[in-house]
Amino acid sequence: xxTSTKIALFAFLILLSVHILEWIGYTPCDLCLKQRWAWYFVxxxxxxxxxxxxxxxxxxxxxxxxxxxxxxxxxxxxxxIEWNFWEGxxxxxxxxxxxxxxxxxxxxxxDKFVPCNETPLRVLGLSLAAYNAIASILIASFAILNIKKxxxx
Length: 153
Fold this sequence. Notes:
It is built from 5 helices and 2 strands; from the N terminus they run ααααββα. The protein is mostly helical.
């Protein structure tokens, strides 16, 4: 199986798992939804690149690794917000006083709003944002290692 196909499969499984979690009742916050963008891009890029010749694939793997390393940084930032290491954006905190009174009441009445600084699910002590960071780093590193392997280094 080609490396780009493996990466597409990993991206698909990650997206499938978060959508299943959402389907069973875990509503994602705004930052969680934004972290999915990278996986959608990786899924599309790696699926399309599965048809490329090996000589052209190096640039695709660089793009995938760049996208996923950036996603890992974003996920680490989000995990830090969840652990209260630092403040998140004002739009993520339902208790934010900088929002207008009417808008804040609208947010409080919305059952689907999930603050980014709360973690509805932890597995082995880590939030899904932390697992996203780990998965992003691993898959990005896998893409880089494949480039080095193809270069004979």
